[in-house]
What does this fold into?
Amino acid sequence: MAYDKFKILNSTAVPLNIDNVDTDQIIPARFLKATERKGFGNNLFRDWRYNSDDSPVESFPLNNINYNGKILIAGKNFGCGSSREHAVWAIYDYGFRVVVSSFFADIFKNNCLNIGVLPIQVSDPFLAEIFSQIDEDPNSTFEVNLENQEFKIKKLDKKERFKISVYKKDNMSNGYDDIDYLLNKKKEISSFANKFIY
Amino acid sequence: MTKTIFDKVWDSHVIEKIEDGPDVLFIDRHFIHEVTSPVAFVGLKNRGLKVMYPERTFATADHNTPTINQHLPIKDELSAIQVKTLEKNCNEHGIDFWGLGHKKNGIVHVVGPENGITQPGLTIVCGDSHTSTHGAFGAIAFGIGTSEVEMVLACQSIMQQKPKKMRINVDGELKSHVTPKDVAIFIISKLSSSGATGFFVEYSGKVFKEMSMEGRMTVCNLSIEMGARGGMIAPDEKTFKYIKGKEYAPKEEEWDKAISYWSKLKTDKGAVFDKEYNFKGEEIEPMITYGTNPGMAIPISKSIPTSKKSDSKASYLKALDYMDFKEGDQMIGKKIDYVFLGSCTNGRIEDFRTFASIIKGKRKSDNVDAWLVPGSHKVLKSIKDEGILDILTDSGFKLREPGCSACLAMNDDKIPKGKYAVSTTNRNFEGRQGPGARTLLASPLVAAATAITGKITDPREII
It folds into this structure.
């Protein structure tokens, strides 16, 4: 088993209403110099979260004591740019298990699913509703139901279905990863490798 | 059934199709570097696994390495440990490692093609989003995360949903001083930085047909900057000529077999794409970015537009605020502090030739710090052999040693806070070239013209 099983999550959320957040913002390159996967959460959104003298930027949502929770709500095209999985490690290490946006970059989305962070793509109007709900009441809770593929704004009792393949859903809910699957396919892989491609 | 070149290469590598899930895709070639591979090797160790086909993986140190005094031990402790860890992992698993000082060392997307490892019809991956570069040869090449690096090391395969297909045609002629970089930035400015997310792109039309292999690499390299997983160009005589005789290229009988296979790698007439765009070469001008993503770009002679409907106004203004620019500002004449020539986008010999063609016989502006970083030791050698180094030196420029350098500023090559850099790289994200650094992406021609004058300069104005 590669990561925690995911079934249902009830949590408040942290809003980051900025479009095109790239992985250099999620974790700047100078913090990628580790040879083990630990401690990345401290540098999540480093240059937006801290001033150059390491004091917290008060206006940044992660530093706002009103915002908490295991769900990150982000503007569209979240996670674009570099393929660094460190970005998702930082998000996970900080304590988020779900990222919601109206649009995700491809590699980022794959990286999320590979380590057990659930990327949930919702419609633009629904995303706007989530943001305004948090605006109104930072203690608003949300429910993520993986089995039913639903994200619910609990106070409004409003939900939207999200997409995930049967395969990935199965992985997430059982905590399996792709290597667990591929290791059972080694025979097919080696006979494929022996075929001369030209 | 008619197929695109992408279908042909993808379908021939599918080991298994999972219903309502990804395809199990066989990977022919795998590149690794010091930054995105160590945790993958830790994963292997924890699971007690070996590398399945070490001869299909190639390793180089490039991302965090210094660009001066490479013969000395790496000063930065964490970088040194990462490079050492890569070397140790490669030795342990029997993987070819091209460390600092090795004659094949350089940026992963420069050394793959220049040694003949990158070939048409292959599937190629690397834990780096600019792996799309290799698509210039008619390969399916894309960036992956570290979990996937572990998959490829362990099983020579990854699990991927087949992307949708997009074709971008650019016909007609390019105007003078319009380079492959301008073509790519122009396309991204039209499609936006997320306009091709979910797609794999095929570039076709006269402009790409007439483009050099290195130009095609620049274009395919930037595919990821509009969100595409990768881009590819059908191989032709130019492709075959580039590969022939390279160390890892097929030889003798194998070569003939390869050519007959490679020649079939083109999109069938009538094959269907999910999306198509058509542009004319004549509409493209030398381009420059003004914001904090590569889609925020305009022809160099134009002024910064007011926010479009498709942008969220707040995000747009946040970007301009970071750059300390205003809507309506002219780009030409803005003062520049740094010029950077290099990276997997524009760090090849043609880029240095192009740069040299502008600066020859002129002096570097005293107001500009210029960092010129070759993409590899082979590029560095050609710069010396072709006399380009003399031209650079005579004009007051210095050359550094190969690596990714200030493109992502993992090493000491960081643009200081608040300073402006015209860069031939691929990303103008906030802080990409150093905390607080302000990046303007452009071609080697624009970079050269700017290095001479110290302000943003249209290369057509330099005589």
